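User: Fold this; tokens only.

Assistant: Input:
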Amino acid sequence: MIKDLASIIFCFYLSFSFASVTQADVLVDGDFELNGTQAGWLYGTAPNNANQDAAAPGIDAAIELNETLRITGNFLGGATTSFSEAYQEIAIDGTDFSVGDEISLQGLLAHQSSNALSGGNEAFFEVAFVLGPFLSGTVQSAFLTAESKKDEYLFFETVATTIPENATLIRASVKYKQTGNSPGVAWAENVKLVNFTTAVPEPGSVSLLFLGMIGLAAKRRKRTC
């Protein structure tokens, strides 16, 4: 009996540990497929070719489809460090997001051999919260750098963080840090803001759990016959 119970608990653990989650996609055009309209995204800077939808560069046509987000530096010269940013702000209204929910910004980043990041340039995802007139609680993902694998999309996500008291907005950003005039272009795709508090397992994960429990029940019945 104890052994069977342990097996059932283990099935639950496996199912929910490896379950992907579903929820409404609150970001507008998080896959950047609205044909250059830049719907939903705001831009912290927009010189030259920084922060704009662009024709897919051919890193992975199955992912990119029509377009993807191209983001690069400001080229301000000298030893200046500058940031480019594409972002959306989402209301903490008690519907999709509430104070105390645990969230993460996830998505794909890439650079190409033909125009790879160099020097100290980095691309990353960032979550921050608007409290009154201020940004607070900044959480960043791991960074795409000059050393990152090239010519394919890599998955990045911010560390899960809890929405703090008095926060009114979530600011979800794709950011590019440029050091001096170091060149390079980063591409972002399939960006999602995930709420772990309200997310539910996908149907496939629930089916896996159900099948596992049926198997355990059948095994137990066979032993008692």
